[in-house]
Amino acid sequence: MIVYVDSVGLLAPGLPGWPVARQVLAGERAYTWQPMPAPAAAALPAMERRRSSETVRLAVSVAQEAADASSFSAGALAAVFTCCNGDGRITHQICMAAAEPEPEVSPTQFHNSVHNAPAGYWSIATGATRASTSLCMSDASFAGALLEAGTQVVVDAQPVLLVAYDIPLPPPLHALHPLAGPFAVALVLAPQPTGQALARLQLALVRDMQVTGLPEGMAAWDGHPAARALPLLQGIAQPAGQVIGLPYLDDMGVEVICQPC
Amino acid sequence: MITGMAAANALGLGVPAMLSALQDEQTGLQPNDFAPAPLPTWIGRVTALEQVRLAPSLAVFDCRNNRLAQLGLQQDDFGAAVAGARARYGAGRIGVFMGTSTSGILTTELGYRQLDAQGQLPAIHYRGTQNLFSLADFVRRYLHLSGPAVVISTACSSSAKVFASAWRHIQAGLCDAAVVGGVDSLCLTTLYGFHSLGLLSDEICRPFDVRRKGISIGEAAGFMLLERLPQGEGDVGLLGYGESSDAYHMSTPDPDGGGARLAMEQALARAGLQPADVDYINLHGTGTQANDTTEDTAIAALFGSGVPCSSTKGWTGHTLGAAGITEAILAALCLRHGMIPRSLNLETPDARLSCSLVRATEHRPIRYAMSNSFGFGGSNCSLLLGKVAA
């Protein structure tokens, strides 16, 4: 499957947006772990932003960066959202409430607890009525979503917004899957090269693949499902025909050949 | 083409139990007796679940949701159908596409009722239970498959959207066949959550009734095996799908029904059919005031009142992440057996709604059936199933 990267959004400690992140990934500046600025999620109407959760604001912010920089309008994009753990804060609060002798769950929290809450808020913010999906493939959530987005780009010949995000879980859930910090990335993928296309990606599902390591200085992100995008982002920052191997399920991997456009 | 189907839900174990329930007009719903959540409501419970045990090699997956998955997979010779596909294509060329809204979260919810003095949870196999992907992971291992796998979690449209994802993965060459389906089971989040929104009826759900008060939650597991095969006359297959977003509100559907209509139009377009070609619409028909009104608006705009419609949630309850597959199975049964089921528990149809609601079950051959699934966050999916010509 061949897709073209039209734009990128990125938000994580030390990676505040694609322009800075691109420089870091291209080796033009060192990576340092800085606290992440609070996601603005400016695309959300004020009332929705007040009701929204941390994962919603994070996912919407990176989606917005990619959509704003994209050749396509937000409304023209089908969307693939992917996340391993959902919003742990909400899970925790609902579980605490449900453990009470007389359980009372907040209705807003409940509708924010659905895995597709970020996708739903994004479509409300942009008025986008195209298909939107929300996936979970555990640690392989990014690679699996890249394949799903690829099938949509190739089979439907349409541009797709891919958004991957994960935030740490609060205690006592934290121990179930410890994560170093929040991380979110968004890619607009197109069926044909656009005037501003950053890279051409050739995707394949392969077995016994060589896994590409994290960029230098980013070992703290090891084990973070959304940060598995980092080797691919490094390829997009400096496409030169390199082969990037993203681990998938069992012995399978998603192999990406990154070419310049 | 659909070359295998399996189910376990409140109507019983196996697809024949669903057919019998439709023919006998016997609901699977009952007053709530799920002890962890003693709310005044009706549920669709799978009582055989309490006796299910997983093999020791799959012990890390043990939770209510995966037990229900196993129960479903054991029905209808589904294992044999998948084994046949494995022999034809290879285990690595069959994908697994599952929908679920809450997976094994009940394990964690109950764990919160047993926090220790330091506020720590009892030991939980997180990736095998609570995590949404555990369902596809379990199904894949149980069926000895090693191709791509996807879990879609978009609330009530989850196990309808899996058909679209499977179709595209096959078209793109990532696999040659697919196991699609979904499983959702009783848990505190959805029972208390829908209750907090005022959407959980305290009586049996009455889709499209003027006195409808909300949903009855049901648990269910459903699976289909899809392959691209030369078609035999009369075989039932997936002819089209449509997906859209409401872009309106997180828990209320767009009253204009625009998103729902888009999904239905797309499904028709992909199938190369006109609205008048559809013989039966299996409504999302949850029994809430908002859903039924919105869905009716969309259907009236697209189909007028010419197509017989019914909701089967009066039989199974709203099976949430498993609604898409459960109702696709029901639609397939209707196509295979020549039946248009009535909308169960309907006493007084809401006169403001104009779609042609089936009041008495009909027995006659039908060729094309649509199944709708519209979820929280405005996620809409419409499937078109039908008999293909040779």
- Report the uncertain regions of chain B: none
Which sequence of SSEs, written as H and E, runs from N to C of chain A? EEHHHEHHHEHEEEHEE
Count the strands of chain B?
Answer: 15
**Rg value of chain A:** 18 Å
**Class from helix and strand fractions of chain A:** alpha+beta
Shape of chain B: globular
Lay out the secondary structure.
The complex is a heterodimer of chains A (261) and B (390).
Chain A: E1 2-12, E2 15-16, H1 18-25, H2 46-51, H3 54-68, E3 78-82, H4 88-98, H5 107-113, H6 117-126, E4 132-135, H7 141-156, E5 160-166, E6 183-190, E7 199-207, H8 230-237, E8 242-247, E9 252-259
Parallel strand pairs in A: 3-4, 3-5
Antiparallel strand pairs in A: 1-2, 1-6, 1-7, 5-6, 7-9, 8-9
Helix pairs in contact in A: 3-6, 4-5
Chain B: E1 2-9, E2 12-13, H1 15-24, E3 30-31, E4 42-44, H2 64-73, H3 78-89, E5 94-99, H4 105-112, H5 134-142, E6 149-152, H6 158-171, E7 177-184, H7 188-196, E8 217-218, E9 220-227, E10 236-245, H8 258-271, E11 280-282, H9 289-303, E12 308-310, H10 313-316, H11 323-337, E13 356-357, E14 368-375, E15 379-387
Parallel strand pairs in B: 4-8, 5-6, 5-7, 11-12, 11-14, 12-13
Antiparallel strand pairs in B: 1-2, 1-9, 3-4, 7-9, 10-15, 14-15
Structure description:
The complex is a heterodimer of chains A (261) and B (390). The model of chain A has no long low-confidence stretch (mean pLDDT 96). Helices cover 31% and strands 23% of the residues of chain A. In chain A, helix 3 (54-68) packs across helix 6 and helix 4 (88-98) packs across helix 5 (107-113). Chain A is built from 8 helices and 9 strands. In chain A, strands 1, 2, 3, 4, 5, 6, 7, 8 and 9 form a 9-stranded mixed sheet that branches. In chain A, strand 8 (242-247) and strand 9 (252-259) form a beta hairpin. Chain A is globular. With 390 residues, chain B is of the alpha/beta class. Helix content of chain B is 31%, strand content 20%. In chain B, the strands form 3 sheets. Chain B has a 6-stranded mixed sheet, sandwiched between helices. The longest helix of chain B is centred in the last third of the chain and has 15 residues, at 289-303. Chain B is globular, with a radius of gyration of 20 Å. The relative contact order of chain B is 0.18. The model of chain B has no long low-confidence stretch (mean pLDDT 96). Chains A and B meet through helix 4, helix 5, helix 6, strand 4 and helix 7 of A and helix 4, helix 5, strand 6, helix 6 and helix 7 of B.
